Amino acid sequence: MPGKEKKEESIRILLVDDEQEFVTTLSERLQMRGFDAEPALDGEQAIESLNSRIPDVMVLDLRMPGLDGIEVLRRVKKQHPEIEIIILTGHGSDRDEDQARRLGALDYLQKPVGVDTLVQRIKKAYKYKTDAASMDESLSGEEDQKFMDKNTKKK
Q: Are 33 and 60 in contact (CB under 8 A)?
């Protein structure tokens, strides 16, 4: 059905990595594929950008000066749990992956990763987000109905 699914160009992505050339090039490549991608060069810039633009998906490096990726993940999930986060790192360990997933990262990738693979993971993250939102709406509707049924039977 036209207009039912969100088009790639409207999937908002925030790319967070301190390697400026990498994050700028990746942002451009995703934009060429129709995504609304913006780069942030460190954790502070990523957190600050959330004041003006909430992404659907954040692609986040772990090792950055200042606020590292784990701290960014922690803060973002606390303030904006609806943002799906994909960790993309060249310096991660199994322990880092476990910690990131416990804090709410949906996916964890090691650099180098192909753009096609990243695009698939971004689409998967967006689908997960929208499916979860649909489920929340449907559950709240069921709860409303249960509440109404329960309260109308008392009278």
A: no
